[in-house]
Design goal:
Layout: H1 2-28, E1 35-38, E2 42-43, H2 52-67, E3 71-72, E4 79-95, E5 101-116, E6 124-135, H3 140-163
Parallel strand pairs: 1-3, 1-4, 2-4
Antiparallel strand pairs: 4-5, 5-6
Length: about 170
């Protein structure tokens, strides 16, 4: 009797752990399968690092590879992501008593066109915008690289969630 209870207990524990693994994967990544084509992004703004569009394209591809079952394709694919960097702003925030900004904000906006060749109901065009702040005591040259990466990471996460994460 004890042996059969033990077997059932082990069986249900394994079943529970297996189901938790599948739920975790679905919540943390994409359930989409197939091929994804990401066309090179362009930048239609004068500001920002010279390699901003190229870096964004490569980081976006890397994120999809690491967080989905999708395979990156250079040809016609099940899903297509394309767009442009349409805004790059550096603006002062939070004036102090001396009428100086205590914070500066970098904002990047990306226009995305997503095409789902499996289900056109999922197609969309949308602008995504994110920002990062830095203190007035730092110069743009000192923080631009790290703050731009922070913004790109946020943008990529938002785009991934909207396109294939099925939230």
């Amino acid at each position: 009797m004890k042996k059969s209870i033990y077997i059932y207990l082990v069986y249900f524990s394994l079943l529970f752990l297996w189901s938790c693994k599948n739920v975790y994967y679905t919540l943390s990544g994409s359930t989409a399968t197939g091929n994804l084509q990401i066309l090179p992004f362009s930048s239609v703004v004068a500001g920002g690092p010279a390699n901003l569009a190229q870096k964004f394209t490569e980081d976006l591809k890397t994120y999809y590879i690491q967080n989905s079952r999708l395979r990156i394709s250079n040809d016609k694919a099940d899903y297509l992501v394309e767009g442009e960097i349409i805004d790059y702003q550096v603006a002062p925030l939070s004036p102090t008593a001396q009428d100086q900004a205590s914070q500066t904000r970098i904002t990047i906006t990306v226009a995305i066109r997503f095409t789902d060749n499996k289900d056109s109901n999922n197609n969309f065009e949308q602008n995504f915008s994110q920002y990062a702040d830095f203190p007035q005591s730092s110069t743009l040259n000192q923080v631009e690289s790290s703050k731009v990466q922070e913004i790109l990471d946020k943008l990529i996460f938002d785009i991934f969630q909207k396109t294939v994460a099925n939230w």
